[in-house]
Amino acid sequence: HQKGLQVAIDGPASAGKSTVAKIVAQRFSYVYVDTGAMYRTVTLVALQAGVDLTDEERVLQLLEQTQITFQPGEPVQHVFANQHEVTEAIRSELVTNNVSTVAALPKIREALVDRQQEIARAGGVVMDGRDIGTTVLPDAEVKIFLVASVKQRAERRYLENQAKGITTSLVDLQAEIAERDYKDSHRAVSPLQRAADAVEIDTTTLSIEQVVNQIAELIQEKLAEVKNN
Ligand code: CDP
Ligand code: CDP
Fold it and tell me: Which of 62, 111, 196, 220 is least enclosed by beta carbons within 10 angstroms?
């Protein structure tokens, strides 16, 4: 039996990372790991505890007391913090608007990167985030960097919200995404950055299926290469 590959998928908010990562993982029977959900969970726990989100030691203490686990689900994976389901709570506007602050704390990143590397050790994993190809899995056999215009990404968020019955302004969403892009790309520790050896896919005008097929093809090529060596 061939050992599964490590597949890293990075990119800015709403580029389509989690949607395609999940489908690609299913196709190859790999484990899907949503690292953004991990940063969102720490943020939620810190907000609920009412701690100052820039108090690194306090937030780290909370993270150390929090077991973050995933369970497969449709249309989204279920996320748990100490067995307590947080799948929906971690997608709230409040968490979304505060997650980049928590994700900039070096000790929080260090602790989560350790957990992510532990999960990926056995291979057969598709992991999505901001720093997977650069920091978490620098030796991943397949690295993808997904991008799309800010306008297109805001429209995707808008449609997602609409489906959930939430009315938001497209202009606000565009500003929120642009701000998070800026914060994620400019922080001191492992900023959002394309790994030198990542394949960039612009999804602005591509369907989910087209993106999935491109990535699946790259995985197939790599599997064939590994087999022949
Ligand atoms: O789904 P969306 O693109 O909105 O974001 P996400 O993937 O759930 O990630 C939420 C936030 O977590 C990002 O805006 C980053 O600030 C942070 N994050 C990170 O710093 N590193 C990662 N590997 C994943 C997420
Ligand atoms: O994980 P990330 O924030 O990068 O994005 P996502 O949550 O997977 O995707 C954001 C939205 O864009 C979802 O509603 C997808 O259905 C949609 N999408 C799309 O319309 N076209 C694509 N090529 C990829 C995603």
Answer: 196
